DNA sequence: TGCCGTGGTGAGAGCGCTCTCGCCGCCCCG
DNA sequence: CGGGGCGGCGAGAGCGCTCTCACCACGGCA
């Protein structure tokens, strides 16, 4: 716990290099319009003094912070039980780092925190925000929109407010679900059940829609509500088995609930995939590879989603146009999914 | 993606309230030494204009940022496969939020990033740092110490540098391990094996030490090296079964590797706990409760560790002395562990 | 009544930076 | 050889805040 030492200022560097503050500033910010010998002298002075620009002073005049808030608005601590957010965070972090932006993490605890987050964002402490808020009734997106902070959402925000200018990155949940169900059908299965995710989230709703796209007139008893957790998967599977003992396949809304379903199936004496084929969603490696048997699933590139969110935001912020593409208001992106075949289906 | 609107300044509030900037500043910062009617007038003006202080301007003069960096220096993306960091982050976030500090997340990708992190910390953008760097040979703690940033480590840093003034928060890994092994011994088990964690981390080394404390002259073949992952647990368990088919208990360095071990034991036809008792470490709920059978384990309060790290740092920063206690250089804290009995042992 | 002490308020400097503008010297062209 | 243009550099203002200090109006005491 040492104390922070006094740090050299632009002034000090200028004095040492024998130039003006303005010139040092120019060199520090890229060196445009300064002749080589001077650039060299300034660089050396910076080096020798260990000069690091004071971000506060800089922000004060540029009104830029080179910082982005990441808002994770999950009511429950379930957030990190899933490796989901972690992976997305990693993708975000990589992209932000590549363009020298900092990541300010805002975790919310329940409703009261929304005001806090909104205040922070409205306070202009960051240049933009990446927001994870997937619940249908979440007031946060609205608050943020009112705060006027450039924002990219993680997952299609399911709220009823003004839709204009809303940018999000999502997986093709519906398409992926269709692919999953078609795969099961292609295996000759006809009694294909679905364990949904938490239906107040758009991803769960979309996957259910995808299931219905293929199973146009499916027996409604083949659908059981889960909540993306293993326990929820177990519950739903037991329910399904009770209602339709003759089912021969299950499409679970994510790998975690598939894992739960798998346990119940085994306990009930069914063999997977012989008696019942099971397919998950996410391709969460530590889960999908570790189940018994290993899980066939729909892969979504979560880290890439994070990276893309950051890239879109930065592009909208006009940060020297990250990674090419046309500058301007970016639009939402829906990433494709892939079927990963293991043994469960 | 709306543009940020121009925000009112102190000046504007002062004008509206008919007072000086200084008075507004005083009110905004607690209102000490300003008479009630004025306070009221200023408050109203702030409210009406929606004034939010410009943090950059404030930092420029106070040299405080009310921001803390959280550095996660895990080489591999394994970081978030474990819910570990997520939980700790949550604890940290809660505490920081309670004292109005922001959380700047710094994830590192391999060695090259160390310099970046060190530069950032040395740059004085944050008031302090919370660092997770548990590897023995990690140069980061040294770099940070040189940067002169007040720091609290998560887990005992295992490095050979200057130890003075190093503050950390850790679980009683050694004591917990002793309790685990004693519990197995109390069950009448005598051939107690140990699956270690990644031994370049202090927590793994400490747990191994704890095991040895009880099993003073254990057969060295009863120890197999794991790496805290389920796959590592499987590998180690197979190794152990090959070397010592007569073992009757296993203490795994964490729940994840215990889950792997459990699978191998079942595949080998052993009954748990009848033939082999198994105990884990961490009490990672989504893992420990979902194994078959549910895992007996050593619980550590991970969220509390995070909270404590933040509290210690803030206290060292002299932030109005969070949560009581003597002000001054804080010292390290080692949190106790608890045995959680489920069915595996 | 006069003086000092005290508490409340305002004026102003200055934190470290960026950016505009103006000056100066050089080169090119007539 | 002179003038205009241009590129390189420095001077200085000002971003929005905090904090010191001086000022003023009281009240208490002699």
- The appropriate CATH architecture of the largest domain in chain A is 3-Layer(aba) Sandwich
Mean pLDDT of chain A: 89
Low-confidence regions of chain A: 320-327
Which pair of chains forms the biggest interface, and how many residues does each contribute? A-B, 67 and 67 residues
Output the CATH homologous superfamily of the largest domain in chain A. Response regulator
Strand content of chain A: 15-25%
CATH class of the largest domain in chain A: Alpha Beta
Q: What's the order of the H and E elements of chain A?
A: HHHHEHEHEHEEHEHEHEHEHEHEE
Q: Write down the domain tally of chain A.
A: 3
Strand order of the largest sheet of chain A: 2-1-3-4-5-11
Topology-level CATH name of the largest domain in chain A: Rossmann fold
The total of helices of chain A stands at 13
Helix content percent band of chain A: 40-55%
Please state the oligomeric state of the protein chains shown: homodimer
Shape of chain A: elongated
- Roughly how many Å apart are the termini of chain A? 56 Å
Domain HTH lacI-type (chains A, B): 8-62
InterPro entries (chains A, B): HTH_LacI (IPR000843), LacI/GalR-like_sensor (IPR046335), Lambda_DNA-bd_dom_sf (IPR010982), Peripla_BP_I (IPR028082)
Protein name (chains A, B): LacI family transcriptional regulator
Keywords (chains A, B): DNA-binding, Transcription, Transcription regulation
